[in-house]
Amino acid sequence: MASSLLHPEDGSRLGVMVCGHGSRNRMAVAEFARLVEGLRPLLPGVPVEYGYLEFASPIIRDGLERLRQQGVERILALPAMLFAAG
């Protein structure tokens, strides 16, 4: 099932957009970026980008544009949040 999701039968190019809320805390933003960097090797051949709703860059629109520039025709949007733990 995952294979058919990542490689659509119609031949269209799929990309993954990881959508975060964003934070004013630079360490939180950097941690989110590292999370996405760790995802990329797990999805070889699938473009993976990210963006934030607010408080940080890149914004979601920028990530979508990067996917478009890579020839992506279909996007799997993956909402993701990191929570601080004590």
UniProtKB/TrEMBL annotation:
One of its GO terms (molecular function) is lyase activity. Pfam families: CbiX (PF01903). Keywords: Lyase, Metal-binding. It comes from the Bacteria. Gene3D superfamilies: 3.40.50.1400. The keyword rRNA processing does not apply. This is Sirohydrochlorin chelatase. It comes from Aphanocapsa feldmannii 277cI. The lineage of its organism: Bacteria, Bacillati, Cyanobacteriota, Cyanophyceae, Oscillatoriophycideae.
